[in-house]
Amino acid sequence: MRGDAWQKTCILKPMPLYIRLFLRFILTLLLVWAMAVYMDQYFFVTGGLLAYVIIAALITLMNILISPLLNLILLPLRMLATIVAIVLANGLFLFFTVWVIDHMERDLVTVDIQGGLAGWILVAIVLGMAKWLMKICLK
User: Fold this and answer.
1) Residue 62 in contact with residue 25, Cβ under 8 Å?
2) How far apart are the C-alpha atoms of 133 and 13, rounded to whole Å?
3) Crossing angle, helix 17-38 and helix 116-137, to 10 degrees?
């Protein structure tokens, strides 16, 4: 019941796939910018606007390709400990994203998660909550 009410506030009509992907990219771009600005002690990005675009495009693409695979692999853990599984899935997603960005040209884009384990957990939780809200709003 609550999910239906929340979804009605986000979207009134179903959208075509290409519009949902574009909106997800734009929202992810804003998320990456907000995390770099407001969580700068944990989430550090260099490379300017182009870096934000690259990171947002990569996260959007990985949401399509990697997230379903991680959710499938972690399904047994989800049955036992949902919160741990969700944070772990988002942490692995974030790890793969940082790993891919580390293999890109350093002059183009860099991203660094600082603050040790607490920083990784905090960024994974923020990223996971944002992905969840985007999923609900862009159905």
Assistant:
1) no
2) 17
3) 150
In terms of residues, how long is the chain? 139
> Are 70 and 91 within 8 A, CB to CB?
no
The 10s digit of each residue's pLDDT in 98-113 is 999 999 888 889 898 9
The whole-angstrom separation of Cα 111 and Cα 34 is 14
**In this predicted model, what pLDDT tens digit does every residue of 66-123 receive, in sequence order?**
888 888 888 887 777 878 888 888 899 999 999 999 998 888 898 989 999 999 999 9
pTM above 0.85, yes or no: no
Contact 101/58 with Cβ under 8 angstroms? yes
The CA–CA distances, whole Å, from 77 to 24, 37, 72, 91 equal: 28, 34, 10, 14
Residues 113, 119: contact at Cβ < 8 Å?
Answer: yes
